Amino acid sequence: METKRVVIVDDSKFIVKQLVQFYRDEMGFEIVATGESGEEALELYRLHRPDLLSLDIVMGGISGLDVVEQLIPEFPDARIMMVSAVRTYEMLECINSGAKGYVEKPLQLHDTDYVKDFKDTLAEIFSE
Question: What pLDDT, on a 0 to 100 scale, did the predictor assign at position 18?
């Protein structure tokens, strides 16, 4: 099986560090780039064309929703996983705009049920 390549974008360096560790150590993914803003998410996706974009919603500059709304028309097969504390209509808007799944923050990577749900969501994203 080919190693999945992921770009992680979140304005929290702490969250990025946790996600890097999870995707690399738990999932065996290659981390091709990380960023802190919606603008970087667009740039890094276009540059690397990863198998997965792990994306926060609320960031400085353009939001994760804006990123989804710009990327999906350009890359209809993009796999975007929202990782956010936002549970309101914005998360639903991300899914309706083309994001393939979401995981809520705070990350609970020490909780086996949370990790199982995270892995199941990723499996669903890659089975589409």
Answer: 97
